[in-house]
Amino acid sequence: MQLALQINSVFRGAGWQVVKPLELLEPAGQAKELARYVKRDVVVEFGYHADDATGSYRIFAVHDQDWEHPLAAITLRNADMALDVLRQLPGLLGRLGPL
Q: Does 99 map to a domain?
């Protein structure tokens, strides 16, 4: 849970609105939105998707609600790796210019 709070703090510190805060990860066997962050017209969504027996974590960053052409679309099976990427995302997106 502490890592989830850290990730929420990283987004807040970078000026993002925490719409749905990340909490303890509990894969549920079906698609589930785990967290959502918004900054101006950019949305970052973190979710769990059970496409097969193991499922995966997905991170999407979209601009102007253009889900068909995301800024980033990352799929990872390892929860720790997914959380590490999510924690770094505000800085990575900041490299694209002012959001």
A: no
